[in-house]
């Protein structure tokens, strides 16, 4: 299969590219930077979609970049890096003489309203209560191609855990130094997925000819994981204590109140359709996932 991947140079994209190539697929990235096996967004708009069988979009400015102040300019970049890249790929698919068979977009579980008790499946309502839920709604809406023969799949991902990027790379050093701990009360749900399962689900979506619609990208046991449980298990995997809770005010001071919601609140999400579609998780449990990551 020839697969075009927007944002394929990033944390998830590198792992997905490796998995797809190991399964004999060819991968071309759409990127802001030139390079081997890459085209630019501008080139994509100008010359259209290269001949391919499937398209994936993983592009998005890192929302939790602690070095970027949460303000209007950064918000616009967070939105446009997701919504505009998705629109550009959707338009290229719609205009293609030979449209690809599959179109997969990775968004987030921020679609569902944070709650300590509610459990959400792919059929649950959401998408209209705060900045992030509305972002996911417009991101997913940008992917729609009415009347297209191309099969569309949206994977709503939880926090992606893996080596060399994402949340783990931001937490590794504080936890290694014994300075890590739960954020705020630590009671908030922590929806997580191992990177090999997220890329596995994307690959499953690309290769399963009848699959379409929303799939939740979270580990089956993640609905029972709180931020405090995660902190304890991560510290245990590293052989360190996790005694120091990070107070909510400190999280808000670093990230800004609106963005801190992502860390201080969470959703209990079930991968119901993902499991029903026949996907088998490699890392269903947190301890096993963390053991692989810190090994
Ligand atoms: P990365 O932060 O690694 O970024 C992915 C790619 O997006 C980058 O390599 C870059 O490609 C492109 N990108 C970054 N900023 C911009 C921008 N301003 N405009 C256009 N393109 C940009 O993301 P991940 O791999 O961690 O995540 C992939 C997708 O999954 C993202 O959309 C993310 O929101 C979503 N997601 C990730 C989660 C996680 O925990 N990691 C959780 C839930 C959802 P290049 O430099 O080549 O242009």
Describe this structure in words.
This protein is an alpha/beta fold and 295 residues long. It has one domain: Rossmann fold. The chain is 41% helix and 16% strand. It is built from 11 helices and 11 strands. The strands form 3 sheets. Strands 3-2-1-4-5-7-10 form a 7-stranded parallel β-sheet, sandwiched between helices. Helix 1 links the parallel strand 1 (2-6) and strand 2 (26-31). Helix 3 packs parallel to helix 4 (131-142) and helix 8 (248-255) crosses helix 9 (257-264). NADPH dihydro-nicotinamide-adenine-dinucleotide phosphate (NDP) binds at residues 7, 9-13, 31-33, 58-62, 77, 81-82, 85, 106, 108, 157, 159-160, 165-167.
What key attributes describe this structure?
single chain, 295 residues, alpha/beta, Rossmann fold, 7-stranded parallel beta sheet, two-stranded parallel sheet, 11 helices, 16% strand, binds NADPH dihydro-nicotinamide-adenine-dinucleotide phosphate
In short:
The chain is an alpha/beta fold. The protein has helices at about 10-20, 40-45, 70-95, 130-140, 165-175, 195-205, 225-240, 250-255, 255-265, 270-275, 285-295, and strands spanning about 1-5, 25-30, 40, 55, 100-110, 120, 150-155, 160, 190-195, 215, 270. It has eleven helices and eleven strands.
């Amino acid at each position: 299969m020839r697969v075009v991947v927007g944002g394929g140079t990033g944390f998830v994209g590198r792992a997905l590219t490796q998995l797809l190539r190991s399964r004999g697929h060819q991968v071309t990235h759409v990127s802001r930077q030139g390079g081997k096996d890459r085209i630019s967004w501008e080139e994509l708009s100008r010359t259209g979609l290269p001949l391919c069988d499937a398209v994936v979009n993983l592009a998005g400015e890192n929302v939790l970049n602690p070095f970027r102040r949460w303000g209007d300019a950064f918000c616009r970049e967070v939105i446009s890096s997701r919504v505009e890249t998705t629109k550009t790929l959707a338009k290229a698919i719609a205009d293609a003489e030979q449209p690809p068979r599959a179109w997969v977009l990775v968004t987030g579980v921020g679609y569902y309203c944070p709650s300590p008790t509610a459990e959400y499946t792919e059929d649950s309502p959401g998408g209209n209560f705060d900045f992030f839920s509305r972002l996911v709604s417009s991101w997913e809406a940008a992917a729609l191609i009415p009347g297209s023969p191309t099969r569309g799949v949206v994977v709503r991902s939880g926090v992606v855990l893996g080596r060399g990027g994402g949340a783990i790379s931001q937490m590794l050093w504080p936890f290694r130094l014994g300075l890590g701990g739960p954020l705020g009360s630590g009671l908030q749900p922590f929806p997580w997925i191992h990177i090999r399962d997220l890329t596995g689900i994307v690959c499953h979506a690309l290769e399963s000819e009848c699959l379409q619609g929303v799939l939740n990208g979270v580990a089956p046991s993640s609905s029972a994981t709180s931020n405090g449980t995660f902190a304890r298990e991560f510290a245990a995997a590293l052989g360190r204590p996790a005694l120091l809770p990070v107070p909510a005010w400190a999280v808000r001071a670093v990230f800004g109140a609106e963005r801190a919601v992502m860390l201080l609140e969470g959703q209990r999400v079930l991968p119901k359709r993902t499991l029903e579609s026949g996907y088998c998780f490699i890392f269903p449990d947190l301890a096993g996932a963390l053991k692989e990551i810190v090994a």
